[in-house]
Amino acid sequence: MGLPLRLRAGLLSVLILAVFLLAWQAATAGFGGGSAGLPAGMDPEYAKLMGLTATAGKSAMPSPVEVGRQLWTLLSNPFYDKGPNDKGLGIQLAFSLARVLGGYGLAVAVAIPLGFVIGMSPLMSRALDPFIQVLKPISPLAWMPLALYTIKDSSISAVFVIFICSVWPMLINTAFGVASVRKEWLNVARTLEVGPLKRAFTVILPAAAPTILTGMRISIGIAWLVIVAAEMLVGGTGIGYFVWNEWNNLSITNVIIAILVIGVVGMILDQILAAVARLVTFPE
Hints:
By secondary structure, the protein is an all-alpha fold. It is built from 12 helices and no strands. The protein has helices at residues 5-27, 44-50, 52-55, 64-76, 89-120, 122-135, 144-151, 154-179, 183-191, 196-234, 239-248, 252-280. α4 (64-76) crosses α12, α7 crosses α8 and α8 (154-179) packs antiparallel against α10. The longest helix has 39 residues, at 196-234.
């Protein structure tokens, strides 16, 4: 009997990662230099800007070993606070997660009840559809100047941007899931004289839950994606600001670490909702 699919997929993932890291290590191990100790074709001013690694004939891009060493340093003390522009990775991540969960929670509170109304009422669906179609394609960052002008608080403005980008996938999926509930199930509930409110919670919600969770899963991914760009704009704290600040400090190693952390946290958030979706999905 062959190995299970999950085990084979895991082994293949490890192999792909190992090949990638080896190629990365080989690419950053060094390259031939030109005259005056500079890499061939590199502008001297750029070499001076990039520091000793460039002028020593070595790649300015850090190796996996250097990234791993710096990652261990950051994770060993993630909650230090040495001033506005020098906070630990854990603090920056906590600010970002708080903003994302705040805006996402507001989106859940608005999108799911409104989605139920739209899905259960063809009149409301037709009446609200033009507004949804106009507002949905607008980039969340386009709202940022207006939010900063009216709210006058960068953190709350970031929460608003998360809300506005999270609400649409949940709203549309909820409305679709509610409208797609089998008519025979609703007819049986009416025959048994089940009231509208009880019918919504005992018949429609369980049937539409997988579709609703799919919308929530899409929304959390978009929210985590947008918060990085929003924090680059508003500054102060957060993982997005950390990326921008480290770039200004020319710390490419910390930028790569932040990118890795953003990806891992995004995956964890997605998998949490995927697990919840599996709990509410049932065979018909």
